[in-house]
Amino acid sequence: MHPDMALHMMADLFLTGLLVCAPVLGLTMLVGLLISVVQVITQVQEMTLTFIPKLLTAGAALIFFGPWMLRKLTQFAIQLWSAIPSMF
Question: How far is CA 64 from CA 21, 43, 68, 71, in A?
């Protein structure tokens, strides 16, 4: 395996990981930010208040984006398996 090929595979790995994680992480971060703003406005400083909405948001995001995430991971795995003969 050439060093350039290994670097390209690592770049694809990180890009795929970022794309797969982005919807869930982005939505939970947005919900956390909105709840934090509400906490500042109402002066309710309860740390456990953000847990349930973030958990529900992450679950809904996984249900909604799950097929797309699985498709991206499957495409990445197929690409890796098909590249094995050209590595040697």
Answer: 13, 33, 8, 13
The domain of 11 spans 3-86
Model confidence at 34, pLDDT cuts 50, 70, 90, reads very high
Higher pLDDT, 18 or 45: 18
CA of residue 63 relative to chain centroid, distance: 13
Instruction: Spell out a b/e string for 14-29, using b for 16 or more CB atoms within 10 Å of the CB, else e.
Output: eebeeebeebbeebbe
Cβ within 8 Å of residue 44, ≥6 positions away: 38
Q: Which two tokens stand for residue 48?
A: 């456990």
Look up the pTM and report it. 0.80
Q: Total structural domains in the chain?
A: 1
